[in-house]
Amino acid sequence: MQLAEMVKPQDIVVLLVEDSSGDAAAITKAMVYGSPFYNFKITRKATLEAGIEFLQGTKVDVVLLDLDLPDAKELIAVEHMHNLFPDLPIVIISGYSDINMVHDALHSGAQEFLIKGECSGVTIRQSIYQAIARKQIEVSYQRGDKL
Fold first, then answer.
1. How far apart are CA 113 and CA 133, in angstroms?
2. 146 burial class (0-12, 13-18, 19+ CB within 10 angstroms)?
3. Which is higher by pLDDT, 49 or 135?
4. What is the DSSP string of 98-142?
5. Residue 125 CB neighbour total at 10 angstroms
6. What is the distance between the alpha carbons of residues 61 and 63, in angstroms, rounded to a whole number?
7. What gap in Å lies between CA 81 and CA 76, rounded to an integer?
């Protein structure tokens, strides 16, 4: 019996906020292909407003957030999402590759920053896992929990 058969995949609920249908399909395909340890349950919203509305009624484990949305450009998206849901891990997946944008997004509340077209499914899945773990540690630390 292989390891993948012995271990039940862990469900990870993902909100993908991405306005491009093509990019959303490519990201989704990359995430689910070859992932025996995670069962990604992905919901896509095309605007920041729709993503926020969804989050107000649904628990998710992580948000994958584009920074070029019809209703929020660049850092506005991550700042707004982080201010409303400070305990929610955010992974940026964007066409922006400027190092200053990466730095500013991470300082605005994102845990990870991926560049579209330059990341594989493995990279996306690993970034999601690390963002969730990092946010759990951060929240525990803020509450004063012992690690």
1. 15
2. exposed
3. 49
4. -HHHHHHHHHTT-SEEEETTS--HHHHHHHHHHHHHHHHHHHHHH
5. 21
6. 7
7. 8
Q: Work out the angle at residue 29's Cα, subtended by the Cα atoms of residues 121 and 57, and round it to the nearest 5 degrees.
A: 100
For residue 113, how many C-alpha atoms fall within 13 Å in the half-sphere facing its CB?
A: 20
Tokens of 66: 């584009």
Q: What is the pLDDT of residues 74-97, one digit of tens each?
A: 899 999 999 999 999 999 999 888
List the domain range (segments joined by +) for residue 28.
3-143
CATH number, residue 105? 3.40.50.2300
Distance (Å, whole) CA 92 – CA 63: 8
User: Widest CA span of the chain, in angstroms?
Assistant: 49
Number of domains in the chain: 1
